[in-house]
Each structure stands twice: as C-alpha cells, then as structure tokens.
Amino acid sequence: MSESSVPSEPFLATLAITGVGLIGGSIAAAARQRHVAGRIVGIGRTEKRLAEAVEAGLIDEGSTDVAVAADADLAVVCTPVDRIAQDVRALAEVMSETSLLTDAGSTKRALCQELADLDGVHGPAFIGSHPLAGSTRQGFEHADPDLFDRKVCVLTPQSNANPTEMARLETFWTALGAVVHRRTPNEHDQALARTSHLPHLVAAALAGSLSEEDTELSATGLRDTTRIAAGDPALWVPIFQHNSSAITTALDRFQAQLKEFSDGLRRDDGCALQKLLEEAKRKRDGLG
Amino acid sequence: MSESSVPSEPFLATLAITGVGLIGGSIAAAARQRHVAGRIVGIGRTEKRLAEAVEAGLIDEGSTDVAVAADADLAVVCTPVDRIAQDVRALAEVMSETSLLTDAGSTKRALCQELADLDGVHGPAFIGSHPLAGSTRQGFEHADPDLFDRKVCVLTPQSNANPTEMARLETFWTALGAVVHRRTPNEHDQALARTSHLPHLVAAALAGSLSEEDTELSATGLRDTTRIAAGDPALWVPIFQHNSSAITTALDRFQAQLKEFSDGLRRDDGCALQKLLEEAKRKRDGLG
Question: In terms of domains, do A245 and A265 share one?
Fold first, then answer.
C-alpha cells in the first residue's frame, strides 16, 4: 500500500446528527472512535440534553437551531420516522449544495418518495439509510461506538441517485463498521416488514396476551420471544403506519402459518406438526 | 448452627436418570457438583451413548436395562413427554417401595392422571416436576451443572400426594439450585401453554413464514424472536399434542390480540396502536 492510501484528514470535516439518542449518539461515538469526522455537531429539541451530550464527549457542539449544521459535509437524521422528512428539509435549507443528507429510519418508501426532489442537482442530495442495529434502551447514555460493527446497513437510492454521492454514503457507513447492502425503497420496506416490523408486532401481541399471573412461570424462551416488545411505542407506531400495507401482507402470511399449526393441533395430527416444526427449524437455523 | 445440620452423607445414596441428554445430563452434572447424590446411574436406549456419559464423568454406571436403578432412592425421567409414563412404570417395577419417582416433562395433566395410582401407598410414589430450564442444544455434551441455578421448577402433586415425599422432592430440586413452585397439573398446563408452548408455536410460525431471501436483511430482533424455533421438533410435537386444548385457548387469545393490531393498521389508527404497544411493553417489562 502506498502512503497516499492512509488518509491524513478524516473522511468528513464536519458531521451533523439530528436526534442525538441511542442511534444518533452511537453514530457520533463510532465516528469519533474511528476518526471518521473531524467535528461533530448535534441538533436536538432541548438545549439541556445537547449540553449533556457535549459533556459526555459525543458531540463537539449542540444546538436546537439547525444553522449549527451549515458547514457540515454530511448529516444523518436519527429522529422517529414521522419526523425525518421535515428534519431533512430543515437541514437541506442551511447546508451547502455539495453536502449529503441521510437518515437512519426503519421505513423508506414513503420517505424517499417525499424527498425525491432532493436529488443533488440543485442543492444537497438525500439518500436513505437504514442501519439494522438498535437496542430497546433509549438515550445517548447507552450509545455504543460498536453498535454498527458488522451489522447490515441498507442504502435505498432512488433510480436517479448520483453514483458519487452513493459511494460517499457507502464509505461513511463502512467506516462506522457496517456492511452495506443496496435495495430500492420498496424492496427495503417489503423485506423489513417480514424481518423486523412483523416480528415486533408479533412479540408485542404475545406480550399483550399474557396474564399478570403468568410472570411467575415464565422462562428464557418467553423472554427472548418478547424482548423487542420492550421497545419504545412512540418509535414503533409511525413505523407501523408508514409500512402498514407491507406489514399487513406479512401478517396475512404469518396468520396462514398459524392456521396450519392450529389445524394440526385440532386434528391431533402429529405428522403435520412435525413437518411444520422441521420447516421452521430449517429456516431459523438458516439465520445463524 | 449445630454440626448436625451439616450432612455427612449426600442427600441421596443413589440417583437414577432415565434419558441422559441435555436435561438428564445437566441434572447429573448438578447433582455431582453439589454433592446431592453419592452415585448416579443412567438408563438409556444405546449402550454406546451411556458409555460415553460414563466416560464424560456424568454418571457412574449406565445401562439399557432399567434394573440398574433397583437401588436408587430417587429417579428422574428425562425423556420426551410421550415416553415418560412408560419409563416411569418401568422404573416403578424395579425400585423399592420407599423410592420416589419424578420427571422433567413440559406437560403435566395427562401424565399425572395416567400415573395417579403411583401414590406411594403400595409402591414407589410419583410426583411430577417441570424445571423451566433448557436449551436448543441437544445431548449430554452440552450438560451444564448450573442449568437449574435460580430457575423455577414447578412441582405438580396430585391432591393425595404424601407431604413427606413432596418435601423430599422439593429438597432435591432446591439442592440443584432451583426455586420450587407448586401448582396442580392442570394449573401448570394452562400457565405453560401461555408462557412456553404458545411462544414456541408463534416463534415457529414466524420462522416458517420467512422467505429464504429475507436472511440477508435480518437483525437481532428477528433472531431473538425466533430463537426457540430451533428446538428439536421431536420433543415439541408431543408437548403440543399433550396440551393441545390449553394451547388452542392461548392461541385464540393471541389471535384476538393480533386482530387488534391488524385492525389498527388497516384503520391507520395511531392511538389504538400506541395503546396496544404500551400495554405490551408494560407486560414485557414486568417479566424482567
């Protein structure tokens, strides 16, 4: 390797993060630890929390005024999915024409459609991101610089996305440790409905159907199966609403599987139940 | 404390275990490590596996002939739930009148009814046990002496159970580290349908409804939610069959919850979804 392959400057002079919670804080921590950004600014809704994030060493400067991001090369919006579009627009108004905007939201179709005009031709470009990493914990106090390490991050460019901007965004997430995959916004939402949104709904329905007196006789299997139901409802309601049609399709498919189990139970059909459990085990073992 | 409270002899001279797999092997390992039994004999179906369990130091002697348990004070049957009754009967024929028989099966109503005549009046007594501990791994190679440590073990005595035998059984499981709870066989099966059997069915139906191409975009939430679907189908089919009526009741209740989510999605009713997720989170947080 030639010396020129070792960057003397960080990849980004200034990184802006709107929403310095668990995800935004972890992006800041990872960018800091991996020397991805020379300076990190945070935008939030309360001065106090931002001051605490500065105090914690996660960001260099915080403000409730989006103008703090004026010099940023790249901004990541880490707010709930029903707030992302407006937060991206606010940044686009103050950031330079050559800057790049992205997000960390769990749904992409509605968002990328809404922001399709931010194509980078006459202003900053927006390309959607979704790092498949998280926690049921909330707040930057639980930020983890390794949260994205070897985790998938899905990028969802529109068909007219600038390849140079795509390469920049891919470099950014790769530098944070993530493994980048590319999907259309619609492909992303269909797949995530099955692998994330439906599992969340199912875990919540299972937790919701428990009796208080069941707590005493619960074991690790139940705790694992319902773990994600402890997630923040305020984050999940808009995810459900933004992707309701794909989730409904996934739910129908799941209910068809449930019915097969239910029929097997009612008919006392051991062979049918065995076959269903073997198929489920085969698919589960495939997840690693 | 007087010296007499320190036992000079192990609680059991001889412990017999039928089915030396993950659970049976872990009982042996725990009994060995905690000096609960002076001698441990294993009964199984293949000489080779039993010889390997002796070689591994889990049991002192193994045999495919139940007569090896003739001198045992206590026997634990750790075979799949559709084999427990016959394995208990086989032991009852060779063991002494003062001996105690139990099991480690996940369903109790059918079993305890079938073995109700083993009340200890004219021969060995049987009292059902269900340690709420396990693993998706199989085989005594994964035996863990701490598998029962601070885990719940449910004892399900019939109404005519001898209090002395109950106390003995409670002492046994407590000595292995477990926290003993007492339920009627029917109460046990109703509760476990909700806290274990339904979650297993739901995890399997969720895994079963995945597409092969979903693997790439799956995250830890999906893996947690479906983890138990990797369990051995041969163990779970008889559990489903033995407890089908209680599982069907629990499944109906779960499906009613699913329908509420589904209605909320179709109506785009954010308030309803928020309420459902909050209730689920409250119950999940209660599991600790």
Answer: yes
Domain end among B128, B161, B183: B183
Which residues of chain A make contact with B222, given a CB cutoff of 8 A? Answer: 195-196, 199, 287
Same domain, B28 and B161: yes
**Residue A210, domain extent:** 188-287
Residue A283 contacts residue A257 (beta carbons within 8 Å): no
Residue with tokens 């001198």: B71
Those of residues 235-254 in A touching chain B at CB distance below 8 A are 236-238, 240-241, 244, 247-248, 250-251, 253-254
Judgement on whether residues B151 and B50 belong to the same structural domain of the protein: yes
Residue-by-residue pLDDT tens, chain A, 288 positions: 344 444 558 899 999 999 999 999 999 999 999 999 999 999 999 999 999 999 999 999 999 999 999 999 999 999 999 999 999 999 999 999 999 999 999 999 999 999 999 998 889 999 999 999 977 788 999 999 999 999 999 999 998 899 999 999 999 999 999 999 999 999 999 999 999 999 999 999 999 999 888 888 988 889 999 999 999 999 999 999 999 999 999 999 999 999 999 999 999 999 999 999 999 999 999 987
Is the domain of A176 the same as that of A194? no
The bridge status of strand B179-182 relative to strand B152-156 is parallel
A138 and A25 share one domain: yes
Residue of B nearest to A148 (CA): B219
Joined together, the tokens standing for residue A267 give 């008919």
- Find the distance separating the first CA and the last CA of chain A, reported in whole Å: 35
**CATH number, domain containing residue B65:** 3.40.50.720
Q: Report the complex ipTM.
A: 0.89
Instruction: Compute the distance between CA of residue B263 and CA of residue A194 in angstroms, rounded to an integer.
Output: 18
Cross-strand partners of B43: B18, B63
What is the tally of structural domains in chain B?
2
Tokens (6 digits) for B286: 């209660």
- pTM of structure: 0.89
Same domain, A151 and A17: yes
